[in-house]
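Q: I'm teaching a short session on how sequence maps to structure, and I want students to see two examples side by side rather than one. Could you give me a first protein with its sequence written out and its structure tokens following it? Keep the formatting plain so it prints cleanly on a handout.
A: Of course. Example one:
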Amino acid sequence: MRRRLLVTPLALLVACSSERLGPAPLVDPPANLSYEVEPTGTPGTPSGLILRWDDDGNPDLASWNVYSRGSTTGSFLLRGTTTSNSFHDRGTPHLQYYVTAVDRAGGESSASAVVTVDERLALVAPTDLTTTTLNESIGLAWPDNAYQADPGAFRAYHVYSASYDLDTDQCGADWQLEGTTVAPEFIVGALTNGVPRCFGVSAVSIEGFESLWAPVRSDTPRPDARSVVVYAQQASATGSAFRFWQDVNADGHVQDAELGLVKTGSSADADFVVDRQGDGSLTLTPVRAAVQVASYGTAPVGDLTDIDIAPVGGYAAGAVTAAPGATFIFRMTEGDGFYRYGAVRLTHVGQDFLILDWSYQTDPGNPDLVRAAH
């Protein structure tokens, strides 16, 4: 694994400070100096730098001095003084920094090790970006190659969005940070249906260096009964269970507002809940005693319309393992003595959530599965 931080004893550098005169200082040079740049979304142009070092708790300590230089041939100059064991240097960072400790009598310690701000520590860019159109949101997924290339250097992915002009096929210039994630997937929510957006993703190293972006993609959220996001309840208890139909008015009539309900993971009246297992896989587990599930064949199903008739047998109350393209048939009773059938086709299965299409037969006892109008 490559070295993550370039640290050089000051004595080995050119243009070191001259030998200090006067009584020996009562404080030691700071140890474990490290830095973190502040990413801006544009690779190679951080907006600032934060230095951190250990505070050894010496009661004689008064402050720390921070020195920097812009090139390896320049002289170190005082950048600032602080009473905190961190220092925020706003703007384009200098190339090298070191820190000294100052005692209450004004005596200054020798220099700490020098850190070099090395942009070569930036990670590789995600190689691709795919989007899934959702209701008032967009699902993003990308290869995890930046993490896999150097797990010890990886911090997180940054997700950005901007406006998109469909007529000119151009993204807007005002990009905003939607969020960060350590998983190679993200849901951009709180979007307006029918308003297109552009999306970009970068990888950020532990020093804060930002990679180039994955290929930028555009998408437009829309109202639809398909592409429903259900989280693993270990990632988010909210939105981790699902019910095909819940007769809120107890009148036996199916209303659109009663179909396709995403519920909390603790809901005892859910049809199934999504769980993340110890090996990282996701499962769908029936919740209500009246719910059973069966796999619809062993091969991925291209679309829910490919399902004609629900199978007669093979149902059980145990959990089933989620996989992209897998389709499951749920058989339920609602207290009227008739089976009702619902189908789920998984279009995306990640670490924290899955995306599914669903259909539900509103006619009691009818195994003919058609996609529910919603």
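Q: Perfect. Now a second example for contrast.
A: Example two:
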Amino acid sequence: MRLGRAKAARKTLKFYSINSNINPPYKVILDGNFLAALAKQKMEAVFFERLERLLHTHKFTVYTLRSALDELNLLPGEVFLEARRFGLDELEILERRDIPGAKEDSNPKQDILSLVKNGNPDGWFIATQDESLSDKIRDLPNVPQMRLARAALILESPSSSSRRSAMREERGKQSTGGGMMTNDERELVQRLRDERTKKRQRPSDDVDDAPRRKHKAKGPNPLSCKKKKSDSLAAKSDGKKRNRRKKTTDTSSGDV
């Protein structure tokens, strides 16, 4: 497994561990489409090794559905025969009676959706190549999905439905103090929030109608009261100017 894919898988597993309490030992369901893809790409022998590297643990159990095996039995071709044989020999089989709400004639898609509805309480991982089933699962929160892409086993990132569910759960924990607040404390917090909201929603007209405070006039700027430099020079030029006579030295009177 490439480093980037392994890092993304660790991040996804951590998300489901924190927000959905999905932890080892993991439970993985392979539907008929996924089994057929394994057989077509000759990956049966290496599947468990790659799954162990993807999940970063050897603690997992892989299942398939009785309805998926019945569906493969109806399809002609060696690939579907090999896929059914791998499911019978190597995987645990979920009978219809083990699936809540499953009917005797239910198909694999119906059985999988019955297992993961209501937030996937049993923490199933679903491995499928069926795009229509994948789209329906992405609309449900807390359901990890796997698929094959060019002989590489991929763990999909959490869907938008799973992320929204995690955000709602986080907001709920914050509003209740992590679930440790009493009813009286929650009511107090809600009352304080309502009061704060009312203060923010007060009309701005109350502020506009309030009388404005009048500021007293300040004294003149002392810098503006200074006389200009040209005026002071003109004032000095009006007075009488004192003439000074230069003292000269008579050098011609020095006879010997």
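Q: What should students look for in example two?
A: Point them to this: Residues 3-166 form a domain with the Rossmann fold fold (CATH 3.40.50.1010). Also worth mentioning: The CA atoms of residues 69 and 99 lie 15 Å apart.
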